[in-house]
Design goal:
Order of helices and strands: HHHHHEEHEHEHEHHEHE
Number of strands: 7
Radius of gyration: 19 Å
Strand order of the largest sheet: 3-2-1-4-5-7-6
Strand content: 5-15%
Number of helices: 11
Length: 304
C-alpha cells in the first residue's frame, strides 16, 4: 500500500503557516490549514523547530522564531512560488479558452476548494494515488469542505504503464478540449526516463494549444555546487523515503519538451521568481525575507 506523502503534508503545512501568519501574502491558501488536524499542525511545528540545528546551526532564538525561520527559508519558497506562478498562468489560460485543469500528483493541493469565479467553467481532475486521494477526502470531510461538482478524482500511478486509462475513461474528460496541466513538485522524484514518459503521454492526451506547467531542479541541484537549502531539501526527502532522482539543464528541458511536441512559453529562475512573486511580501516583511528556492526553475510550455 502506498504511504501518505510526508513531503505533501509538509507542503500543506507551509502554505497554511504562511497564510495564517502574514497580512501581505505571496500566496493565500486559506484552505490548507483545514486539511491538517490541530495535533498534526503542532507535531509538524515542533518537529521543524526542534530541527533548527540541522537547518541553521548558528541560529539563536525561541522555538517560535526558529519555526518561522525554517518555514520562510526552507519550507515555503517552493510551494508558494510554484502555486502563485501556476494559478496566474491558469487564469490567463482560462481567459483564452482552457476548460480542463489536470493536477498531476495533486496531493493536498487546494485550488479546487477555493475556486475563484473564473474557474467555474473548468472541469478539474486531481490525479494521484488512491491512498492520497482517499486520505484527502477524509480530511475535506473533517474540515467540512464540500467537494465541488466540477472536481474529479483520478486514482492512478502515472509512473506505471497505461496510467492514463483511468483519466480517459472518466466521462468528464475530453482530449479534444484545451487543457492546462500542472506537474508541480513532481519532477524531482521521477527518473529522467519516467519524466519523459509522462510528457509523452501528456502529448498524446492534450490538444494543440494546451499548457503544461512544472518546476524542476537544475543541473547543479545534487552536486557540490548546489545551494545549502537545496542540499538540505534533498537530504530531508531522502530521509522521508522520497528520494530526489533527476536534475536538468535548461537546454535539456528545452530539448525534451520539443521532442514531445511542446514549446517553452515562459521560464523563471530563482532570481526571477523572487522578483515577480516575492518582492511585495519582502518589502512588507524586511525581517523575514523569502527568496526563490536554490536551483529550482519554473517552466510553462505549450503543446504545438
Amino acid at each position: 500500500m502506498e504511504q501518505k506523502s510526508m513531503t505533501a503534508l509538509v507542503s500543506a503545512f507551509s502554505r497554511a503557516y504562511h497564510a495564517e501568519n502574514n497580512e501581505v501574502k505571496i500566496f493565500d491558501d486559506r484552505v490548507a490549514r483545514l486539511l491538517l488536524s490541530d495535533k498534526e499542525f503542532r507535531q509538524i511545528s515542533k518537529s521543524m523547530a526542534d530541527g533548527i540545528g540541522f537547518f541553521n546551526p548558528s541560529f539563536a532564538g525561541t522555538p517560535e522564531e526558529a519555526l518561522r525561520w525554517i518555514v520562510d527559508n526552507q519550507l515555503s519558497p517552493p510551494p508558494l512560488g510554484r502555486a502563485a506562478f501556476a494559478e496566474k498562468a491558469l487564469e490567463t489560460a482560462v481567459s483564452i479558452g482552457t476548460t480542463q485543469y489536470l493536477i498531476m500528483g495533486a496531493g493536498y493541493d487546494t485550488f479546487a476548494y477555493r475556486q475563484p469565479d473564473w474557474a467555474e467553467i473548468l472541469q478539474i481532475f486531481e490525479v494521484d494515488h488512491s491512498t492520497t486521494g482517499n486520505d484527502k477526502k477524509i480530511r475535506l470531510d473533517v474540515g467540512k469542505i464540500a467537494i465541488p461538482e466540477n472536481v474529479h478524482y483520478v486514482a492512478t500511478d502515472f509512473t506505471e504503464e497505461q496510467w492514463w486509462n483511468t483519466l480517459t475513461e472518466n466521462i468528464a474528460f475530453n482530449s479534444d478540449k484545451n487543457s492546462f496541466c500542472s506537474i508541480l513538485g513532481v519532477a524531482y522524484y521521477l527518473s529522467k526516463q519516467a519524466f519523459e514518459k509522462l510528457l509523452s503521454a501528456l502529448s498524446s492526451l492534450l490538444s494543440k494549444g494546451s499548457s503544461v506547467i512544472f518546476d524542476y531542479p537544475d543541473e547543479n541541484s545534487y552536486t557540490d555546487k548546489a545551494g545549502e537549502r537545496a542540499k538540505k531539501q534533498a537530504m530531508l526527502a531522502g530521509a522521508a523515503n522520497e528520494k530526489m532522482l533527476a536534475s536538468y539543464s535548461y537546454e535539456e528541458i528545452e530539448k525534451i519538451l520539443s521532442d514531445y511536441g511542446f514549446l517553452i512559453y515562459e521560464h523563471l529562475t530563482p532570481l526571477e521568481m523572487t522578483g515577480r512573486y516575492f518582492n511585495v511580501y519582502n518589502d512588507a516583511n524586511p525581517s523575514h525575507p523569502i527568496t526563490g528556492f536554490d536551483n529550482v526553475n519554473y517552466c510553462l510550455a505549450i503543446r504545438k
